[in-house]
Design a protein that fits this description.
The chain is α+β, with helices and mostly antiparallel strands. The protein contains 2 helices and 8 strands. It folds into 2 domains: about 80 residues, F0F1 ATP synthase delta/epsilon subunit, N-terminal (ATP Synthase, domain 1); about 45 residues, Single alpha-helices involved in coiled-coils or other helix-helix interfaces (Up-down Bundle), CATH 1.20.5.440. Strands 1, 2, 3, 4, 5, 6, 7 and 8 form an 8-stranded mixed β-sheet that branches.
Length: about 130
């Protein structure tokens, strides 16, 4: 089966680099499944899990926004933050989700609701990613 190179890069480091059979991401216009020889494209990403199929095994990453660049045989994800699903501390992610939900429920002027909403999206993405790895 043919492969393409996947790189997941954050401002701090290269999180992942490997040959994969397929990549599935959530762009702002919907879900994208990318196979080798896909047409070139660049699109922004949502805060959502990313799935890479490697030798018939699924590997999941929590990706916190950014962009994806697709070339013929290479996919580069430039993310604000990214982590392996297996590295996620589920209890910490649950606490972050609960904290963000409480902040959003308070609806006070001194609470930055857009920041709390992003925190909630990140926590939900981390939980979804970790649960898929189990």
């Amino acid at each position: 089966m043919s492969t393409l190179r996947l790189e997941i890069v954050t401002p701090e480091r290269k999180v992942y680099e490997n040959d994969v059979n397929m990549v599935v991401v959530k762009g702002v216009s919907g879900e994208l499944g990318i196979l080798p020889h896909h047409i070139p494209l660049v699109t922004p990403l949502k805060i959502a899990p990313v799935k890479a199929k490697v030798n018939n095994k699924d590997v999941f990453f929590a990706v916190h926004g950014g962009f994806i660049e697709v070339r013929k045989d290479k996919v580069v994800i430039l993310a604000e933050a990214a982590e392996f699903g297996s590295d996620i501390d589920i209890s910490r992610a649950r606490l972050a989700k609960e904290r963000a939900e409480r902040r959003l429920a308070q609806k006070q002027e001194d609470i930055n609701s857009s920041r709390a909403e992003l925190a909630l999206q990140r926590a939900i993405s981390r939980l979804e990613t970790a649960e898929r790895e189990i």
